[in-house]
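Re-running the complex after MR caught last week's input typo. The corrected sequence lines follow. Everything else is unchanged.
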Amino acid sequence: DIQMTQSPSTLSASVGDRVTITCRASQYINTYLAWYQQKPGKAPKVLIYEASSLESGVPSRFGGSGSGTEFTLTISSLQPDDFATYHCQQYHRYWSFGQGTKVENK
Amino acid sequence: EVQLVESGGGLVKPGGSLRLSCAASGFTFSTFTMNWVRQTPGKGLEWLSSIDGSGTYIYYADSVKGRFTISRDNAKNSLSLQMSSLRVEDSAVYYCARDSNYGSLWGQGTLVTVSS
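Corrected-run output:
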C-alpha cells in the first residue's frame, strides 16, 4: 500500500498569508497526485490533479507542484473562503489519502 | 445537473448488514469507473472499492475484502455497496466518487453507524 503523509496537521494563518502544505508518498507515484478542499459536513472538492493541473473553476491562487514522492499545495494569498481542511490523494495504485491539514484562522 | 446522491445509511448492530446506493445523473455513468470512500474523524479518508464502467474489474481495500461487495447497474445509473459482517470500526460517512483517475465528482455522503 502507498502511504501518504501530510504536514502540518494544523496550520494557523491570516487572510492574505501565503500558505504551503506538504504531502509525501511512501513510494514513487510520478505525478499521480490530487489535492482536495473539504469544509465541515461537505464532500471533498478537487482543486489540483496530476500534481499541478488546476481543476476548472478553481481560483488561480491555488497551485500544486512536485513529482515522485514530494508534493506541495500553495495558496498564494489566503482568502476567507479558504479556511478548510485539505487532503492529498495518490492515484498511482488504487487511491490513498493523506490525513488532512486543517487551515484555521490565526 | 451533474451529481451523485448516496442513500441507505443508518444505524445497524455489529454483525449486521446494510446496502448503500449512489444515484448518478448528468453524465454518461457507464463510461466511468466508480469508487466508494469512507471518512472517519480518526482515520480520515479511506478508499474502499472501485468498479470499472462495465463492472468487469473490481478492487477492494484489505479492510473490507470479503465483507463488502460493490456493484453497478448502468441501465439505472446506479452504484451500490453491500456491507455485511459490520463492525464498530466501519462507522463512518460513506461517499461514492466518480473516477477520472482522481475523484472528479463526489456525493454528499451517507452516515453509517455500527453500534449495539
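None of the earlier attempt is carried over here. Residues 35 and 88 of chain A are 5 Å apart (CA to CA). Chain A touches chain B at residues 1, 32, 34, 36, 42-46, 49, 55, 87, 89, 91, 94-100 (CB under 8 Å).
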